Amino acid sequence: MKFLLVPLLIVGMFFSFTAALVAMLFWTKTVETPQQLVNLVMGGQDSTDIFDEFSLKDDELSELFALADTYRTRYEQQAKESQVLMDSLTAGLTALQVEKERLAAESVRLESLDVQQANAQRSQSLDELAKFYAKIKPANAAEILQQEAQLSDTTVAELLRKLPAQQMGKIMANMLPERAAKITKLMQELAVR
Questions:
Q1: Angstrom distances, CA of residue 64 to CA of 51, 53, 79
Q2: Which of 164, 139, 144, 166 is nearest to 156 (CA)?
Q3: Residues 29 and 90 in one domain
Q4: Distance (Å, rounded) from C-alpha 191 to C-alpha 185?
Q5: Do 57 and 46 share a domain, yes or no?
Q6: Residues 63 and 117 in one domain
Q7: pTM summary value
Q8: Residue 131 falls within a domain, yes or no?
């Protein structure tokens, strides 16, 4: 009889552990129906895939590493594109600065030409006036040149400098002394320039 008790004890322990295991499976909601229990015991369900939250963490971690690699690759590509654009922008700004300096120099040159052309036209105009004043009587010329509304003092001084010295002297003699002195002073200043 003694020999019979040991196998019965083993079988009883097996059934009690099995019952405890089944109760635990239902209590932890690993299985919710008897059919799920049968599928689990018969191998219809993967017994290693009991807790989804544990297996997903490994998958999520590998997905995060893959996503990080994707972002790093994108970042490196965008950094290269950004550097190319920055280099292009720098080259464009340099070219723009060079063009700006060239235009400034050209503007100065054109202004100089404009001033030279204006001075040449003014000189030509004064030459023509000088020819006219050289032909009229000194008294009439003095009377016209004394009218301040007609010509500025500087223009009168430049005009008189273009006349022959003898004609200039006769015209100055027919001017009012104050006006003649003022024109003479301007003529001296023009001679210094």
A1: 21, 16, 22
A2: 144
A3: no
A4: 10
A5: no
A6: yes
A7: 0.43
A8: no
pLDDT tens-digit series, residues 113-149: 888 888 888 888 888 888 888 888 888 888 888 876 6
- The pLDDT score that the predictor gives to residue 131 is 85
How many angstroms separate the CA atoms of 193 and 178, rounded? 23
CA separation for the pair 26, 32 (Å, rounded): 6
How many residues appear in the chain?
193
Answer whether 25's CB lies under 8 Å from 40's CB.
yes
Q: Are residues 117 and 59 in the same domain?
A: yes
| Residue scoring higher pLDDT (118 or 178) | 178
Range of the domain at 104: 51-126
Q: In the listed set 9, 27, 50, which residue is the last one of a domain according to the structure?
A: 50
Domains identified in the chain, total number: 3
Q: Is residue 62 part of a domain?
A: yes
Residues 180 and 146: their CA atoms lie apart, in Å, by 9
Looking at the fold, whether 65 and 116 belong to one and the same domain comes out as yes
61-101: pLDDT as tens digits: 788 888 999 999 999 999 999 999 998 898 888 888 888 88
Give the C-alpha distances (Å, rounded to integers) separating 32 from 16, 27, 28, 59, 128: 20, 9, 9, 26, 121
